[in-house]
Amino acid sequence: MTPGPDKLNSTIRIPVDEARRICEAVFGETMGAPGKVTEAATDVLVDADVRGIASHGISVLPYYLNKWQQGQIVPTAELELISETATTRVFAGHRSVGHYSSRRAMDTAIEKARSAGLGSAVVRNSTHNGAISAYTIQAARAGLLGIAATACAPHVAPPGGREGLHGTNPFSYALPRPDSDPLVFDLSTGHSSAKLKNKADDDGRLPEGTALDAQGNPTTDPADLKGGWILPVAGHVGFGLALLVDGLTAALADSPIGREIPLVHETDGPYHGSFFCLAIDPAAFGGTEAFSARIESLVDQIQEHPPRDPANPVRWPGQRGWTTAVENRQLGIPFDSNRWSDLLEELERFGASP
Q1: Taking phi first (over 0 means left), then psi (-120 to 50 degrees means alpha), and beta for anything else, what does residue 166 get?
Q2: Mean pLDDT, the chain, as a whole number?
Q3: Vertex 194, ends 139 and 252: CA angle to 5°?
Q4: Residues 6+ apart with CB under 8 A from 144
Q5: I need a labelling partner for 58 at 20 to 30 A (CA). Which of 233, 289, 305, 335 fits?
Q6: Dist. CA 126–CA 153, nearest whole Å
Q7: Start-end ranges of CATH 3.30.60.50 in the chain?
């Protein structure tokens, strides 16, 4: 099946199987990742596109190829268990593919939660792992409440600051529902550079209040995304949550933190990201049935809430994404035709021939 035009706009639709094939070619054939690593990366990237998170989907493939060629991603690397308790594990990632190491970490958290009620894992020296809601959904599909966070390169300036202090530091949770898709929340505590780039491509400028230039001055110039800095989402709220992420990830994993983490262009050493995940079994608290009943009551209250605009009903977190997923699985993943051509050309420049 070939990509088809969407008559309503300038997009094309990429079949999900085709998106998976391209990911598998990049990670498996070009980068030489083992099958289980390729599968994890493919699942996470294509799932992001299917749920409408285009900024973290297959358009990011050139980034991973670049980091691989720079030596910051080692496709064949395995996790090393550093320490363990009844409820926790600490892993060294050894620059392994972030999607794989994060999935493995959540697997172990789920395993421990099933026996102890709670399970958590952290990974040091990890790499970019895509949309981290993939890992909280992983826990929710197992009937557990999932929480995850990632610390990354310090390109986000604090409120009142002039240069980066910490990363975009995403945070996610997912609440399981036995007969429905889970509630899913996924927040980048700093403005996403990928989303800002896409916004700049569409509008020719950056939104106000999202970035600083290299000298620390507010800017709307897309060129400043390369040498400038990003700002936190919602000011001090995003900053405070970003510091929580630093504590859950880098501090618990005994990994470089804040400005100790290299900037994206500093590629002569490890990427030094870190990942945290937590799985909670409702059975260890008020009981699984009671938890599910309360969550369904909450969902009903949200869906029955009177909207200000009837054309825009109140939605629970993740609802739009699951609706989008049904459409995209049937029709294909929407892609701007120019961006699709650019992606294929860029992959070829990296030696990938999907």
Answers
A1: beta
A2: 95
A3: 45
A4: 110, 113, 176, 279, 280, 281, 282
A5: 233
A6: 12
A7: 193-237
Fold of 193-237: Wheat Germ Agglutinin (Isolectin 2); domain 1 (3.30.60)
> Would you call 24 helix, strand, or coil by DSSP?
helix
Encode pLDDT of 293-335 as tens digits: 999 999 999 999 999 999 999 999 999 999 999 999 999 999 9
- Could you list the beta-strand ranges (E) of 129-272: 145-151, 171-175, 183-187, 211-212, 229-230
168 contacts 161 by C-beta, under 8 angstroms? no
Chain Cα centroid distance, residue 248: 16
Identity of residue 65: L
280 bridge partner residues = 118, 145
For residues 190 and 200, what is the distance between their CA atoms, to the nearest angstrom? 17
Token reading at 22: 């391209």
The one-letter amino acid at 95: R
DSSP H or E segment with residue 77:
none
Residues in Cβ contact with 302 at an 8 Å cutoff, skipping those fewer than 6 apart? 314, 315, 316
- Chain-centre distance for alpha carbon 241: 16
Q: Beginning with the edge strand found earlier in the chain, give each strand of the sheet holding 273-280 in spatial order.
A: 80-84, 88-92, 118-126, 273-280, 145-151, 171-175, 183-187
Position 284: which residue type?
Answer: A
CATH 3.30.1370.60 domain extents, the chain: 80-188
> Which CATH code is given to the segment(s) 80-188?
3.30.1370.60
Q: How many CA atoms lie within 13 A of 209 on its CB side?
A: 7
Helices and strands counted in the chain (H then E): 12, 12
pLDDT, tens digit (0-9, with 9 covering 90-100), for 95-151: 999 999 999 999 999 999 999 999 999 999 999 999 999 999 999 999 999 999 999
